[in-house]
Amino acid sequence: MKKIPVGHLTVGMFIQEICGSWMDHPFWKTSFLLTSDQDYQTLVQSGVHEVWIDPDKGLDVSQDTPSLDAEQVRQQAESLLTATQQLAPPDLRVPFREEIERARFIHARAKTAVTSMFQEVRMGQALTADAAYPLVAEIHQSVARNSDALLNLARLKNKNDYTYLHSVAVCALMLALGKQLGISGDELMHAGAAGLLHDVGKMMIPDEVLNKPGRLTDAEFNTIKSHPSLGHEILLKSGGLHPIVLDVCLHHHEKIDGSGYPEGLSGQDVSLYARMGTVCDVYDAITSERCYKTGWEPTMAIRKMAEWQSSHFDLRIFHAFVRTVGIYPTGALVKLKSERLGLVVEQHPASLLTPYVRVFFSLRKNCHLEPKILDLSTGEDTVIAAETPERWNFPASVLAL
Ligand SMILES: [Fe+2]
Ligand SMILES: [Fe+2]
């Protein structure tokens, strides 16, 4: 497989994967033979910059085309991620196990509240800041104690309540990322509210378009792309919402290279909060299961985002985001140098590369081990790779935090 710039694609090449969030292009299946010029134009117009092609299934590129193989791309992404290691991981004030029960309660309540708030919007009622901010404050308290607890719960969604739970997740991510960037006080609350309300415009998009399992027509894709402006209108009409909330709602699909929507803003014209919104939004979207796509594991998602970073995200914000969720996020399955598999159960205050890991499986003996928690900062063992749980079929109890 080769990663090539979109400009070098020709009809007859087999596209294995499009580099970018699947919210940003209308091709629901990411692997297909490029058969028409029109599809090529759609790809370019969607702001896709790079794609993976499989030369065994279609035409190859000429020798002078700039291309990268999987190992080169992997190394680039890893070095971008490990560049964050000198910076402090999130400040986890209480252990994960202690926070998770409270977080479960807050998450359930937030889901109910967001669902009714959004359904009222769908029926034409105005949104009020009073409805959103107490919720943001509660989510913030949990995130401030231990952001991993709520962030882990926020990943679990089912297809029907995606938009509501995505809103809660992006709220929690904005609060955790904002804190990592040194934002505090009222501004942090506005960033959280912005996360909670960024997709409110989706309430105006018909379900059959929003959840369509097949490829979107140009008209349907344009309908989806209207959600930031529709949301912005709803928030404006509601009145009393802070400019940060309005800005993130309208601009969370803008990209710093100018290829986003609705306004195609670029560089400094995309505000700090909108840039934060983009990173949090993409991460939650690609780690969630949708009607047309299974979600990626956090370790995989963060590596994919590192691959897309230069055209999609602000580097400083991306680095802060990696520090927020981890290089090996809590809940990730990892392979250790000692040929054991383990689950990351907590980040370590010293470094993102040395989390606490519960080892439970020996690859050498191919059998389960008595679970034991290792502190990798002691040097006793090292993570050598992120593992995908699908390969292993371990019972859920083994992977539970
Ligand atoms: Fe959106
Ligand atoms: Fe979103």
Descriptive overview:
The protein is α+β, with helices and mostly antiparallel strands and 401 residues long. 46% of the residues lie in helices and 12% in strands. It folds into 3 domains: 2-66, no CATH class; 96-325, Hypothetical protein af1432, CATH 1.10.3210.10; 333-399, no CATH class. Helix 3 (96-122) packs across helix 5, helix 4 (129-155) packs across helix 5 and helix 11 (272-287) packs antiparallel against helix 12 (298-312). The two termini are 35 Å apart. One fe (ii) ion is lined by residues 166, 170, 198-199, 281.
Bound molecules: fe (ii) ion
Number of separate helices: 14
What is the name of the CATH architecture of the largest domain? Answer: Orthogonal Bundle
Strand order of the largest sheet: 3-2-4-1-5
Question: What is the fold's blueprint, element by element?
Answer:
Layout: E1 2-5, E2 14-18, E3 32-33, H1 37-45, E4 50-53, E5 68-69, H2 70-82, H3 96-122, H4 129-155, H5 162-180, H6 185-197, H7 207-210, H8 218-224, H9 227-238, H10 243-251, H11 272-287, H12 298-312, H13 315-325, E6 333-336, E7 340-346, E8 356-362, E9 367-375, E10 383-386, H14 396-399
Antiparallel strand pairs: 1-4, 1-5, 2-3, 2-4, 6-7, 6-10, 7-8, 8-9
Helix pairs in contact: 2-12, 3-4, 3-5, 4-5, 4-6, 5-6, 5-11, 5-13, 6-10, 9-10, 10-11, 11-12, 12-13
Residues 166, 170, 198-199, 281 line the site of one fe (ii) ion (FE2).
